[in-house]
Amino acid sequence: MAGENRSTQAAAWQLGISPKLLYRWQKAQLMPEVGSEEVARDPVVRALCACLKRAKQKLDI
Prior knowledge:
Layout: H1 2-5, H2 8-15, H3 19-30, H4 37-41, H5 43-60
Helix pairs in contact: 2-3
């Protein structure tokens, strides 16, 4: 609704909820979830996972 109305305030008023709550929901929707394919394909996440794997291997040795 907020996207259709182009006004988060108006959408929140129509739904009878706080605009702050609606903003939080919008922000949460834009952020990828941990464990999602989008996060797994992120080159930074992949590099960090590889670094973590090497560090674990060093600790095992």
